[in-house]
Amino acid sequence: MKANDLYALVKSAAPIAGVTVGNEGDKATWAVDWGASSAPEIAAGEALIAAVSDVDTATVEAPRMNFDCKLIVTSSLAIQLSNHNGDQIFINGQNYPIAQYAVNLGNTGLAAATLYYVYAYWTGLKVALELSTTGHAVDPTWGHRTKGSTPSRTYVGMVYMGAGTPGTFVDSDTQRFCASYYNRINKPVQRALIANRATTAAPHVELDSAERIEFISHGDEHALVWLNAIAANSNAGTDTYGALGLDGISTLLARTVFYSADAGNLFAFGKMQGQQFSAGYHYLTPVGGTSGGGARTATYYAGGDPTRFGAMLRQ
Predict the structure, then answer these.
(1) Residue 100 contacts by C-beta under 8 Å, 6 or more apart in sequence?
(2) Which of 67, 168, 239, 240 gets the most CB atoms within 10 Å of its CB?
(3) Could you tell me if 162 and 73 lie in one domain?
(4) What is the distance, to the nearest Å, from the Cα of residue 204 to the centroid of all Cα atoms in its chain?
């Protein structure tokens, strides 16, 4: 059956309140507003849809899903779902307007050192935000991500709470604790060494936990990890090691080594590496060491042109 013939068939049916039909080029379309229909009309509408549902030339198009938003930190006490290239967000089968001045949520009742998923929902009057430790999943009807199996909650990002009671929102060079799911941008998490760090370990040890940089990841994009070390070794003819430890020193990234022919001379060495992090919270920490150990000391410098390290994230 051609779409035009289907359109004529539907159009010739007895009028049903809440049912609208249309003819768009090569597609016959229909829609039902059950809220405008009585029980008999609902039954008639369902019968009509059943009659045409297996006509393969009829097309029912899903609504356009808009996610014109970005999750950001506005202060240590608040986050915001801001407008981005539009002002609509798709929730439970429909696009809703984001408030003119965006949607804000405070940190009341949130615990430090806890990962929260951020969901947008429609109150009946406006879009609002909800934080939950319940993770997100693909909605089986529309294909976007929602709170578990709750289609009324659209996933928009995650936050990891910084220190304080209640926990605080943080988005800084050394703590990237807000990750928007939509409309991501490049964000560096990075630092220079706070102080000179020395070790006699062979070959790898965390230089100091105070040097860690922390971040959260959606787990679906690669990051560029980098280390630029300024160091010296107390002994000639010695290897000096450098790396970044991911959540400890079991996994070493940007791993490199420099052979020092002279004792005490400064040298620079480094490496870049692509890395896809798993979803959730992570930290990177500078790792060093020296061949032989014992009396051989590797020193990594903070002053002048310091040792620097970091990662370029997508948040």
Answers:
(1) 87
(2) 240
(3) yes
(4) 31
